[in-house]
Amino acid sequence: MIGYVLSLIAILFTFDLISGEREHGTLRLTLANSVPRHTVLIGKFLGALVSISVPFTLAILINLVFLSGAFLAFVRVEV
Hints:
- With 79 residues, the protein is mainly α.
- The protein has one domain (20-78).
- It is built from four helices and no strands.
């Protein structure tokens, strides 16, 4: 389930990275500044990766904190 949601979020964040810049004309301006294409693509990839990884990691950590708190509360009741 989480894999499907994360995949949809990744598509939502990244569907317009290159094509949107091409439509707006900013891709031509970026590549005119002697920036190699692979550098632009790697930058776009890393930006998308960070923008997806950080919220996902925070969500996992928050869930682990809540689950560990619930587990500790359950253990205290049983003892």
